[in-house]
């Protein structure tokens, strides 16, 4: 791929990118260098929660860029304090540390739990995680993940992440021992194929972790920030975790993530945790714009309504094409196909003419939908009409 006098061969090869150069985005739409439009139901992997280049984020970032970009994390700034206050006012956690990516927030959660274990549980350090979980691509978060093949990729792993089966409380109980400090899970396994932890399982997990004096960590990097129709997905189950991580949607497209903990668990001391960009006002200003949009009266009701609308349209496709089913929460949904044709559908959707469609296939028989939280019913109709034709083909 050429860009002026430059060539994409200068980039490190880490994935097979199609020969498309995206130049512009607006709401649910992306436009490439040839002027072709694409309806985007991936949104940077659930990152652009308010769509491409929404005015609220644009205005907040431009205003902040003109004022102060980065005084250094050693000093307070307004947006960092405002965003921490907005987040803690809308969940059961008390303290926030900001970082740049989901993996980094989870790495912080693992460190915080291990520190708490050293202080309060005789040096316990093991964190029970789950088969098919995805927590990021640093060494510790890869070790915490339950992705097939990741136990040997970049071996040796970081030790201390025994795996249980999602929605099987006995499998968790069987792993708890003197070295256990926490259980960590995604309320909805996203990369694993949009597999929700049931509310009953989350409630049983909360009870089990309390009885054993160990921590409950929810990784809401994908499921948080309104994605499932509640601000945070664990709120569907009415539980209160000890630690929560956020990423993706929190910055609405810019690199921002957060580690939140209760007062009792916030045991970092100076020197334990940090990072050059943590709490920088530029990204925090974007986070404030996102959070203020999500908590505006009626916004989350609209997300729930559009989630139900999308689910209903997907169920029509299930019936019409004899597919295996549909599942998910809010605007994080999956269509289970009748065969392993999801990658072929994703490719054909992208190549569609005159308009392309961006979909994602986390598993060969599964399509995942993560549109903007502001997606319209007309855009959902347009997507399902395009997908209907692709399923027929
Ligand atoms: C649940 C979950 N945790 C962590 C991550 C890692 O986030 P990042 O890619 O920003 O490091 C992801 C990314 O897909 C995720 O879905």
Automatic annotation (TrEMBL):
The modification N6-(pyridoxal phosphate)lysine is found at residue 248. Its cofactor is pyridoxal 5'-phosphate. One of its GO terms (molecular function) is diaminobutyrate-2-oxoglutarate transaminase activity. Its main location: cytoplasm. Transmembrane segments: none annotated. Binds 1 pyridoxal phosphate per subunit. GO terms for cellular component: cytoplasm. It comes from the Bacteria. Pyridoxal 5'-phosphate binds at residues 102-103, 134, 219-222, 276. Its EC number is 2.6.1.11. Pathway: Amino-acid biosynthesis; L-arginine biosynthesis; N(2)-acetyl-L-ornithine from L-glutamate: step 4/4; Amine and polyamine biosynthesis; ectoine biosynthesis; L-ectoine from L-aspartate 4-semialdehyde: step 1/3. Keywords: Amino-acid biosynthesis, Aminotransferase, Arginine biosynthesis, Cytoplasm, Pyridoxal phosphate, Transferase. N(2)-acetyl-L-ornithine binds at residue 137. It catalyses: N(2)-acetyl-L-ornithine + 2-oxoglutarate = N-acetyl-L-glutamate 5-semialdehyde + L-glutamate. CDD domains: OAT_like. GO terms for biological process: L-arginine biosynthetic process. It is found in: Cytoplasm. May also have succinyldiaminopimelate aminotransferase activity, thus carrying out the corresponding step in lysine biosynthesis. Homodimer. Belongs to the class-III pyridoxal-phosphate-dependent aminotransferase family. ArgD subfamily. This is Acetylornithine aminotransferase. The gene is argD.
